Amino acid sequence: HVKLWEVGGGLVQAGGSLNLSCVASGSRVYVKNMAWFRQSPGNPRELVASTDDAGTTNYADTVKGRFTLSRQQFDNAMYMQMNNLRPEDTALYFCKVNIFSTTADYWGQGIQVTVSS
Residue 53's pLDDT is what? Predict the structure, then answer.
């Protein structure tokens, strides 16, 4: 059983900063890949940033240079710092996790990021 805890987000004015954390917990949970996706009304869910078990990160072009993703807590957590936020970053952000023992995807319930003009 895998539980995903999403923390952070919130409301900020353009140019400000927010952060997001995702923690995967459960017995014998060994996390392989973690990623943040986001979805805004009328748009498909898109990949924002991802990290593998080695700590390698990948970013969407729209957030490069502004968002920074890192792995923490025995690789079962990730932290994303979001700087220079823009109104177009407003979306519901979802944590996605893959573990070594299964090919299934685990999704968080979503956490809101709102950036005002």
Answer: 86
